[in-house]
Write a structure and sequence with these properties.
Strand content: 5-15%
Number of domains: 2
Distance between the termini: 21 Å
Number of strands: 4
Helix content: 40-55%
Largest sheet: 2 strands, antiparallel
Length: about 240
């Protein structure tokens, strides 16, 4: 899971969403009524899906597992628990069917103070709560929120763990390809390789590699000093680009 930057909505869509929220509040809508309103809001759902797809990592990847394509609009706080938030922009994320319908569904664990115990990748930095073990592809919770997120979304299910472990191998291979292409002056191919790497499933592996560059023994873990230097450079460039946005 990686941090996702939320965008501002088109003004017209935002007004329509606010109008629908006001109507839910005016009639004290319950979950059943809110779901019916959501189902009938075809144009609003289409606009939301388009905005979320543009925000997602890679090619419309699920904002939770980072593997499958994001096909569903997930209500971070479920309609069953917060019907008035059905059309709230900041309550929407992009999820795959496995994470949304098969795993999370209406789960929304909260702490004693009422704050959510699930990581919202559009509102906070997941790495503050999760540590990715690169060699085995499994997440480890470093906070209560991290552990709850792993459990609710089943982030360590076998297919995801294998996928991340394989992605770590693939990342190192593509990084070596980039280094070779750049050394031979094949700049366009090198840039294409970098772009492809950032659009593949499990881009969280690349971000976890970034977080490893300052640790003791990083060169050994990452595949050699050349890869370490390249990742350090890319991380610096990405940080500068994010700061300028």
């Amino acid at each position: 899971m990686i941090r996702i930057q939320r965008v501002d909505l088109d003004e017209t869509l935002n007004l329509r969403l606010n109008s629908r929220t006001a109507r839910l509040i005016d009639r004290s809508a319950d979950a059943k009524s809110a779901r019916r309103s959501w189902k009938g809001a075809t144009n609003e759902r289409k606009g939301l899906k388009q905005a979320l797809s543009g925000m997602a990592a890679g090619i419309e990847r699920c904002m939770y597992c980072g593997d499958s394509r994001g096909t569903d609009i997930d209500h971070f706080e479920p309609i069953a628990k917060a019907p008035f938030r059905t059309f709230e922009w900041h309550n929407h994320t992009l999820a795959c069917t496995s994470c949304n319908s098969n795993e999370k569904r209406d789960s929304y664990p909260c702490a004693e103070d009422g704050s959510p115990l699930l990581i919202n990748p559009t509102a906070e930095e997941p790495s503050d709560h999760l540590d990715l073990l690169l060699s085995v592809g499994e997440y480890e919770g470093i906070t209560i929120k991290g552990s709850a997120t792993i459990r609710v979304f089943q982030l360590n299910r076998k297919d995801l763990a294998i996928g991340r472990a394989n992605a770590f191998i693939r990342c190192k291979s593509m990084l070596r390809d980039y280094i070779m292409l750049e050394s031979k002056g094949r700049t366009e191919e090198a840039v294409a390789t970098q772009l492809a790497l950032k659009q593949l499933p499990f881009v969280d592996v690349l971000f976890a590699m970034y977080r490893t560059i300052d640790l003791p023994g990083a060169a050994t873990v990452l595949g050699g000093p050349e890869i370490l230097r390249l990742l350090t450079r890319w991380h610096s460039e990405d940080t500068q680009n994010n700061d300028s946005d």
